[in-house]
Amino acid sequence: MPKYELTITLDSDVSPGSGDSIAGVVDHDITHEYGIPIIPAKRLKGALRGVAKEFVDWGFTSSSKVDELFGKPGEQYRSGIKIYDAKLASIPKEYFANEEDKEIDVNDTFLAQIKQLDTAKVLPLFTMLYTKTATENGQAQTGSLRTIRAINRGLVFKSIIELENDEQKKLLCDCVKGLRHLGYGRTRGLGEVSCKLKMIKGEPKKKRNFIMKENYSNQEEQFVNQAIRITLQQPTLLAGSKGLYYSCTDFVPGSALLGVFASLYIKKHNLGKKAHKDPEFVRLFLRGDVSFGYAYPEVDEKVFMPCPAHIQRVKNENRAMLEEKKTPTIMLRKINSLAYMQENELLLHEPAKEFRMHHARPENRHIGRAVNDTKGTKDLDGKKGQFYYYTALQQGQRFIGELKGKQEDVQMLASLLNDVKGIIHLGRSRTAEYGAAKVDVVNKEPHMGGFLKAKKGDSKVAIYLATPLTLQNEIGRYVADVDLFITQLEREIEATLKVEKMYIKETVLTGYNAKWRLPKQEKQALDAGTVLIVSTENKEVDWSLVEKQQWGAAKGEGCGEIRVLQYEGTPNEVECISISKKLQEKQLTQIDHSLDCVRYIEQAIEKHNKDIRDNKKAIHLAKEMLDELKQYSKSKIYQLEHYVRCDENNFALPKSFPNPLKVLGDKKLKNQSKVFIDAFFHTIKLEVRKDGKEINQK
Prior knowledge:
With 698 residues, the chain is of the alpha+beta class. Helices cover 27% and strands 27% of the residues. α1 (41-58) crosses α5, α12 (596-624) packs parallel to α16 and α14 packs parallel to α15.
């Protein structure tokens, strides 16, 4: 897959709006990371596609070629382009009075350092606020005042663009050449850019070898559980229970991984739209011979899983206990966070998420914003655009999942990653801004959940669902039926189970069939975290038999993972510790002052703080001396200002100039900063103007 580097130089201030605002301060804000501006990939893709549409109007290309490159809503397959966010790549020397431009070589390292600084002080160094209003009959219209934040001119940004093949290169290059304006205010002096595209060369040609751990089983058919680590390189959109626009999962579901590997298999074997007719494809991905397990977050080599529902938190306290063993005076609350049990501590974790806003422009390109059903738009033809936002998993997080099946099948699937150098694309909106992730094979046994497993012969245990479980009844309907599940368990372990207590969580498994472009059948299921407290009588049960297999339907999508946990040996009470704050503190590193960019930004912040102090001191001094200065004419004040701003050799005061003013200039103004002097005289002029006409001036 050929890669290209897109370089964007801001020839004027640019406002690639994020759709967000700060109430009463900024009406149109930009996207930034810790105060460092970024140009989102969706803005770039929309701007490039806008240029391509102009080419279609001029007859330089066809709509089909544009759709082939940039994609078309509702299509089965994604388009042939992948665009990444444009990150700050160079700071011109004029910014911080440098001797030369400062290049940012490793953006992640740079941001890790900038994270230690105050975002509110970093952002003004790279942006400016524009205030505008609409006028009518020479007066400002009521309610028309708008403030726009724009990125300062001169900065250089770089993005990565991937193409499916070189045939699309010409159209992409033409679009880059034609991209001259970006963002809001294009007709008001904002948004002028210069763009260059060059191919990235010199990448290592060696394929990554994904080597699995050895399996020394003597079974005729060797089955393996191969762990994989997924590291998000971009925010990732995985729809939660409330839908794509309102929620995001805390994990990577098995169905998403199944889709990724199925796409890789189809591409390698050129199956196209006939994949469902290939026997091997059907066996691996449709019949469920390989299970793609749920990938849960990994922090410090600990894998956090849904908290077992029989462990609940004491209301308003940082401790948890077994619900069945609480006293009547204690009130408990369910724990919805992911959990990891560590001795007498229950560590809780919620993956970091972020919100990003977007809008699709109307088909009528004369309209620069989504109008939806606003007043006066009924007569517009075509689509009217849409404003929407996504909730996504933040980039940089790691997740641990598993591939389960015959060793040769799992090895073949792992080898598919070689063709893409371990880079996959998850979730929605994968062609711009979202979804890129790196996959590595993990040959070390991951620490999953940390919950103590039941031993052979334990008479009372907690059967815990690590992933959702859906069952089919006698007529083939998908149900969340505990009795049916218990019956299947009893048949497997050849023992009678007595259900002491149930902690049920239910869900509905949904999805989308890309082949037929239809929603998948909804499946009622017991959700992950469900716990059944069961006991046996006069029967020594080997509980490992329950864990070795998956239960119910949808096994290929990772459903039906069961853990049998100790119950009587579990501590009645544990301390609850949220690791979110500790994780943030751990990520804070000491600032590396050897990095030029970071050092100059720190110095600029210090200068900015000094300017604020000088401004306040100057205003205070001006108001303090106001009564004394009012007795002098404006010409004397202007002469004093000119005298303070110039060297004595360049400007000589007249002989009749008042000595008190000269003393003021020599002692209190001459050695002050430009900001101090500007603020002092500006305040004097404003205050004098307030009092109207002065009398008895010297």
